[in-house]
Amino acid sequence: MTRTARTAVDRTVLGATGLVLLLTGSWLAASDRALAHRLPSWWPTAGTGAVLLDPGRLARLRGEGWWTPTVMAASIGLTVLLALWTLGQLRPGPARRLALPSPGCTVRPRVLAEALAARATAVPGVARGRARVLPRRGRRLEVELRVRLAPDTSPDAVLPALRAVTAEADAAAAPYTVHTRLRLSAASHRMPHVR
């Protein structure tokens, strides 16, 4: 299922569920005797002691041959449908490819992130680097670069080289506008404690 179709199905299911809950809640609120005098005259109200399905009618329905198989089939079908929908929400969609300036060339965001992290880790004074590339609407990329500095390395020492790495990433993703967020952290100088 494509991403737009999946989004449309998600919004339709959420909208229908919200509408059912809104109507049910309105009916339950309206059936309260304290609110009955405030409702318009055309609003249906439940009588005193009324229930949605009285015991006599339920017993008649259970006596019908179609009732039990219909209820079971509807319950099983609804359970399977909701389970499949839930599993579809957990599974990531297909990896989107980013078009490059050369005709027919594409790159996956994860590959671009791995290359960016490798370039950042190669900078002297950087102990570890991680990157995420998130495609956004309208030819825009958000790049999150997290860098852990080696002990006794100041951020001023590595920042020019990291700026060069991010500028290189901007040039590599040429048709896209890149917004880069850089997070620097330092390794802690933990001393072993003796007890």
TrEMBL record:
Keywords: Membrane, Transmembrane, Transmembrane helix. The chain crosses the membrane at residues 66-87. It comes from the Bacteria. This is Alkaline shock response membrane anchor protein AmaP. It comes from Streptomyces pseudovenezuelae.
